[in-house]
Design brief:
By secondary structure, this protein is α/β, with parallel strands linked by helices. It has a single domain, classed as Vaccinia Virus protein VP39 (Rossmann fold), CATH 3.40.50.150. The protein is about 35% helix and about 25% strand. The protein contains nine helices and seven strands. Strands 3-2-1-4-5-7-6 form a seven-stranded mixed sheet. The protein is globular and about 55 Å long. The two termini are about 30 Å apart.
């Protein structure tokens, strides 16, 4: 998880909550990744792969399931990495480091799940140097399409959207992606997941925008989500939420 000067992306003591709340990416995204990397999904491979901004390793563990074995997860937050290392999955190897200073080179694949909008220009440049000629940069993202009545009036919610827009006002990671890489492929789908009431509650609390508010306000946010999700779930104790999943990938061209 990328740490931003404005607070978005900071978790620290809330790393465990992030890990519990995140919803795994759908399998189809990893099938696309494997196809573009020229490998078979689920068959072990030794491609050097780095997952940048890996957080607690939610997507990194999915990369292991897809077959990646020479795999490294990188995150700036030591508490996020500590949670990742507690999970029963070997590989990957986890490292605490900034993307701007990742020491790897000659990588066959670099993945960035949910991190592209937060990449600084120096980080984007270093990823370029990490990849070998013909190496694949793969970006995946998710966006929950379910907005609960009254959610946008929660403390910090609107401000988080403003800060995200501010972070992207000077440069566009997507435009840089399309300009510097070739064989660009992108795809998006809307997937519906059935979540338990507790999982839905944890998901809503896993957004880093809540670090923009005070502790008393966090109690207000928890109370709001607990009630709103319970009303939506009703007697079933479950909700069906739609998520828009998007991916973009491209290869590093020869000079």
């Amino acid at each position: 998880m990328l740490r931003q000067p404005n607070g978005l992306g900071d978790y620290g003591e809330y790393a465990e909550l992030y890990d519990v709340g995140r919803v795994p990416f759908p399998d189809w995204m990893f099938h696309v990744l494997c196809k573009k990397a020229g490998i078979t999904y689920g068959v072990a491979n030794r491609m050097r792969t780095v997952d940048v901004g890996c957080g607690t390793g939610v997507a990194t563990r999915q990369l292991v399931a897809a077959g990646f074995r020479d795999l490294h997860g990188i995150d700036i937050d030591p508490k996020m990495i500590a949670v990742a290392r507690q999970r029963p999955c070997n590989p990957p190897f986890y490292h605490v480091e900034t993307i701007e200073k990742i020491p790897f080179d000659d990588c066959r694949v670099v993945t960035a799940f949910g991190t592209l909008p937060w990449l600084t220009l120096p980080a984007f440049v270093n990823i370029w140097y990490m990849l070998r000629i013909g190496g694949l940069l793969f970006y995946g993202d998710e966006d929950c399409l379910e907005s609960l009545p009254g959610e946008e009036s929660l403390p910090g919610y609107a401000r988080a959207k403003e800060l995200r827009a501010e972070a992207l006002k000077d440069w566009s990671p997507r435009e840089s992606f399309e300009y510097h890489y070739q064989d660009i492929y992108d795809e998006s789908r809307v997937d519906t997941f059935e979540l338990s009431e507790e999982k839905a509650f944890a998901y809503k609390l896993s957004g880093s925008w809540q670090n923009l508010v005070s502790l008393p306000e966090r109690d207000e946010i928890r109370e709001f989500y607990r009630g709103a999700i319970a009303r939506q779930a009703g007697a079933t104790g479950k909700v069906k939420w739609r998520f828009k999943h998007s991916l973009m990938c491209g290869t590093k061209p020869a000079p």
